[in-house]
């Protein structure tokens, strides 16, 4: 039996359009959405329809309404929210393994596909990692570490990969902070990044994957030590 296609209500249509604006980055996380009159004109709907659509996105976790502030963008996508909820319920080792598994494939693809512009961005992030390591600034190093790996992933030029990695690393950021603060081995981390950058520079995919394998072993060993110490 063929099921009838469900027609979207006007509220659902507006909510989808707003979600598209969020996912496209036109409405950035943390920013206030435009005022009601502007949105009513943009979507050509009534105030009640607009407010219903906003309520739907608040319920979905994409928007947040606070008294005295208004409605702001809370998350970039429902995928990011789903991943964040899953990660919160998962074992720290599992989440670390997923992140680094993604980085292995990213390193290989980046080595094969990177442009000179990509390489310059990766090198800039690496330089900032070096500065943070030299200054023993673990918080800044952690932030630059994440940016370094994101720049490698962007060099894959695979949009789905980029979005997935962005979501999972944002959700994993707290566990990364926890893990790296426990280690405090910034110079060792920087050495790994240097090797990875060099492998990508000479477009050696095998060497790039080997670098991430080495990073994975160190990260796992450090996490095991941290977990044993907390028992």
UniProtKB/TrEMBL annotation:
Taxonomic superkingdom: Bacteria
GO molecular function, one term: DNA binding
Pfam families per the UniProt record, alphabetical: FCD (PF07729), GntR (PF00392)
Source organism per UniProt: Peribacillus huizhouensis
InterPro entries, sorted: GntR_C, TF_FadR/GntR_C, Tscrpt_reg_HTH_GntR, WH-like_DNA-bd_sf, WH_DNA-bd_sf
PANTHER family membership: REGULATORY PROTEIN GNTR HTH, TRANSCRIPTIONAL REGULATOR, GNTR FAMILY
Annotated ranges, domain HTH gntR-type: 8-76
Keywords annotated in UniProt: DNA-binding, Transcription, Transcription regulation
Record-given protein name: DNA-binding FadR family transcriptional regulator
Signal peptide: none
């Amino acid at each position: 039996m063929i099921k009838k296609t469900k027609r979207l209500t006007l509220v659902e249509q507006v909510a989808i359009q707003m979600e598209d604006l969020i996912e496209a980055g036109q409405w950035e996380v943390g920013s206030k959405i435009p005022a009601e009159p502007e949105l009513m004109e943009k979507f050509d709907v009534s105030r009640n329809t607009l407010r219903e659509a906003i309520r739907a996105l608040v319920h979905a976790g994409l928007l947040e309404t606070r008294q005295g502030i208004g409605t702001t963008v809370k998350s970039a996508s429902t995928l990011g929210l789903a991943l964040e909820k899953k990660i919160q319920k998962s074992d720290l080792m599992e989440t670390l393994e997923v992140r680094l598994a993604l980085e292995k494939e990213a390193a290989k693809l980046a080595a094969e596909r990177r442009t000179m512009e990509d390489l310059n961005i990766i090198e800039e992030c690496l330089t900032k990692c070096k500065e943070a390591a030299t200054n023993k600034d673990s918080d800044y190093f952690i932030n630059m570490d994440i940016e370094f790996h994101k720049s490698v992933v962007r060099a894959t030029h695979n949009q789905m990969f980029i979005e997935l990695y962005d979501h999972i690393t944002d959700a994993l950021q707290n566990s990364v902070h926890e893990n790296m603060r426990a280690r405090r081995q910034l110079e060792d981390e920087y050495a790994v990044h240097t090797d990875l950058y060099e492998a990508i520079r000479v477009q050696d995919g095998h060497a790039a994957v080997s670098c991430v394998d080495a990073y994975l072993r160190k990260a796992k060993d450090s996490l095991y030590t941290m977990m044993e110490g907390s028992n």
